[in-house]
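Quick one: structure tokens for this chain, please?
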Amino acid sequence: MQQLSAQGQQFIQGLAQRYGISTDAAITMLYAVMNGNGTMAQFSHPELGGSGQWMMGGMTMVGDMFNYGLKSKVDGLCVEISNQLMNQPGYFQPAQSQFQSSGNAPVGNLFVSAAAAGQWWPGDLGSPSSTGGQNNVRYAVFPSSRRLVVDIGGQVTVYDTLDNQIGGVSQQQGGNDSMTFSSQYGTISVNSLPVISINGYQQQPQQNFMAPPAQQFNEAPAYQAPAAQEGDVFAKIERLADLFKKGILTEQEFTTKKAELLSQL
């Protein structure tokens, strides 16, 4: 979860007062609308009728389907949150095209900036499941996007964790050469993972290092037609000889066919 700024906390408290709900319910709906890109929400909170859905334009569903007062409350709450999110610089639309409702200026950013919140990993990865570090090395794990981010002395490297389920990262000496992590496959070196980016710059795709070197670099052998079976050739020559003895084939025909068959060997 992103950390609310002072303006964000005021906005949440205002919602709670206006709609007669707790700040927890207001925050739940805030993130539900955020996850729906400001146009829809799927939520679950007891104060909001349990599980429900909202879509901009009038579609509102709550657990108590005949509670029209609750439907109206949820719709008003979601619309107000959506309008406020649209006012966030660069959140759903460019800052220069911010929408301002009722002629009022935007209240301000709802969230603390990544730098102010101490976030050092790429913002598009969201929140890590675990973080840690020592000395000049720190790491963050993102299982949902299969990423591991390591910061060594200011160089931030993003790794693809593949299908590893990382249970912990350890480091013996300075640098990432000695960094390992535990997964369902045992202890694995961080350097064995594909590098996605370094300091925000995308890296060239790496070879499939799970395949043997011969599979990585050697071209597939050209297709070769199976050689004629020697036994079949000799069997045909014997049949031709039998036909020649019976006078069915002439000597010239026998000789020509025999030569053709022998050329297949």
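DSSP finds six helices and twelve strands in the chain.
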